[in-house]
Design brief:
By secondary structure, the protein is of the alpha/beta class. The chain contains 14 helices and 19 strands. The longest helix has 23 residues. Bound molecules: S-adenosyl-L-homocysteine (SAH), iron/sulfur cluster and FE3-S4 cluster.
């Protein structure tokens, strides 16, 4: 049988995505055999760490696993477990190692279990070394650049006894038209670009996701049209820096122009995007955001620091004043826009004065919400080698102060819509109270209100009766 399959592997077509569909066929046969031997249907579980990009990648992995005959499960005690990892901060890495230990114990009780690791953490050579040495029970390891050839790697893993490792340094390849298993029927992420060229001095992402590559507008539009035909009402355009979309295409196009094409798609009701880098947020984009109601009333605009001095060392290419000016322009063009942000506390060299500048921006802008992070040293990035690291105790104290301020403002800002009626897209039933459903407003806020499962994926008008800090309790207005 083995020889037969090796021969088949050698006969695979070279062109993509045909090659991957060929391997899906092969994998289907192998999974069927395994399933017969086990006397039951085999299950898989993909666990996602990190950002929306990783979540979207996981949907692609799941699409292929379903295609080859595995059955989806939420239980990690499955026959094929994949951890799609993140390495943006140290604790993300530690979590993976910890969980691998318990996975190994499950594997000892299930002879069919296979373990796969992929995602950003796998792009770091020291991680691979550690896995080779101390985590021999892992079956498959691959990175971010070759995720499109998962079907091929899957076949290799199913026939090979030893650990399969395939990591690429970088790629300029984008493979279209592979299967995807969407988590939600009514909304979807859509990659518009991959990688990042910004090299913010603290950030590992450019090293693990490679150089910036934009998808062709026609491929993006086609994907969204197909999604809409399949019931999707809201899309989230994904990229590390969507504002520099299209710059490296043969026929360059701006992100604002792409948005204008996307909003024309009939049946599509809402468009969101993430993430925007302040340095590339153009007047053209601000204008487009104000012009089209389909573009959601929300912008995630990472600040990182309010100190111009720190921003310079972070390699962010904007000043405190420029950031504040952008916010002013946005609020003028898109009244009532919800602004959210990311802030890092304790970047090397951050003094009390620098931190106060951050607090000042927080108070002036009054973000609807802010993700606050303690600076995490990522080896290989310029900031990790700076000899001005801030002591942990100082960082913790500042972090506490920032979090308190951010939460106070966020609760006040959330409350400003109390008593109004808003259109929401119903996303699901409430985990704690099944008599309630949860709807998302254009500004990304959530409201829980009486309803049932049949409402999922529909738009409803809901009055926001009671603000609970970060969300509302409401009632439907018919
Ligand atoms: N491309 C996005 C962010 C990707 S990472 C952007 O440019 O905004 C998400 C967030 O993680 C960043 O905005 C930053 O706030 C945080 N982050 C990145 N590297 C970090 C580090 N070394 N320590 C702490 N937080 C970090
Ligand atoms: Fe990291 Fe900066 Fe790129 Fe965002 S823009 S992914 S923070 S390097
Ligand atoms: Fe993490 Fe990779 Fe996203 S490092 S934040 S999963 S791009």
């Amino acid at each position: 049988m083995k020889e037969n399959i090796l021969e088949k592997i050698n006969q695979a077509p070279v062109d993509e995505p045909d090659r991957q569909y060929y391997f899906m066929e092969l994998a289907r046969g192998l999974v069927e055999e395994k399933s017969k031997a086990a006397g039951r249907k085999l299950t898989f579980c993909v666990v996602t760490f990190g950002c929306q990009m990783n979540a979207r990648d996981s949907e692609k992995l799941e699409g292929i696993l379903e295609q080859v005959g595995y059955m989806k499960s939420e239980d990690e005690n499955s026959d094929f477990v994949i951890y799609n990892t993140c390495t943006v901060r140290e604790n993300a890495n530690l979590r993976v190692y910890g969980r691998l230990g318990s996975l190994n114990r499950m594997k000892q009780n299930n002879p069919h279990m296979m373990i796969g690791l992929c995602g950003c953490m796998m792009q770091e050579p020291h991680v691979i070394e550690k896995l080779r040495k101390s985590y021999r029970f892992v079956n498959l390891v691959f990175g971010t650049h070759n995720i499109y050839k998962f079907a091929e790697l899957l076949v290799q893993t199913l026939v090979q006894e030893t650990m399969v490792i395939d990591i690429w340094k970088d790629t300029d390849k984008i493979v279209e038209d592979l299967p995807v298993d969407r988590k939600y029927a009514f909304k979807s992420g859509v990659n518009i670009m991959f990688g990042c060229n910004n090299f913010c001095s603290y950030c590992i992402v450019p090293y693990v996701r490679g150089r910036e590559r934009s998808r062709a507008p026609k491929d993006i539009l086609k994907e969204i049209e197909l999604l809409v035909a399949d019931g999707v009402k809201e899309v989230m355009l994904l990229g590390q820096n969507v504002n520099s979309y299209g710059k490296n295409l043969e026929d360059p196009i701006t992100f604002a122009r792409l948005l204008e094409e996307i909003v024309k798609i009939e049946g599509l009701k809402r468009v969101r995007f993430m993430t925007s880098h302040p340095k590339d947020l153009s007047d053209e984009l601000i204008e487009v955001m104000g012009k089209y109601p389909k573009i959601c009333n929300h912008l995630h605009l990472p600040l990182q620091s309010g100190s111009t001095k720190i921003l310079k060392v972070m390699n962010r290419h904007y000043t405190k004043e420029q950031y504040l000016k952008l916010v002013e322009k946005l609020r003028k063009a898109v009244p009532d826009i919800s602004l959210t942000t990311d802030i890092i506390v304790g970047f090397p060299g951050e003094t009390e004065e620098d931190f106060e500048e951050t607090m000042d921006v927080v108070r002036q802008v009054r973000f609807d919400s802010a993700f606050t992070f303690i600076y995490s040293k990522r080896s290989g990035t310029p900031a990790a080698d700076m000899d001005t690291q801030v002591p942990d105790a100082v960082i913790k104290e500042r972090f506490g102060r920032l979090l308190k301020e951010v939460q106070k403002i966020s609760a006040e800002e959330t409350g400003r819509l109390a008593g109004t009626v808003q259109e929401v897209l119903v996303e699901g039933t409430n985990d704690h109270d099944p008599s309630l459903v949860t709807g998302r407003m254009t500004n990304n806020l959530l409201v829980h209100f009486p309803g049932d499962e049949s409402m999922i994926g529909t738009f409803r008008r809901v009055s926001l009766d009671n603000c609970k800090g970060f969300y509302y309790i409401g009632t439907e207005r018919r």
